[in-house]
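Write out structure tokens for Tetratricopeptide repeat protein.
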Amino acid sequence: MKYAILGFIWLCAISAGFSAVTALPAFAVDNMQSTDAPDLTSVRAKIDAKDYAGALSELRGLAEDNQQADVYNLMGYTLRKTGDYRTSLTYYTKALELRPDHKAAREYLGELYVETGETAKAEEQVASLKQLCPDGCEELEDLQKAIAAKAGN
């Protein structure tokens, strides 16, 4: 019995450690490869049309029912576009807690940092994207362009 209890405690400790490592917080549109996301076609159309209020309304309903990185990423993106940087940061963080390899969330978080003058933090997202796509990717290129454009101003 003593060993069973110790085994259970050990298992809990390992699980807690694994959760802490895999859910590191970090500070979209989204990864199209995701298969567990709800249908976001309508939201994307509203975002493309710059109907951020309509997109937010729809996303709030989806966020209540879906703990899903693409939903949180789009919520962060839409909030950033409306100027609500603080809440946007919260949603990007949630997206990256669920999927640390979410390239779009990393790009958009970096763009948030560019917009708020935190270039060093934006560069951290560049470093993360370089690890995620060593051969390059659109998200990395877009974030690097945003940083360069800000530096040129």
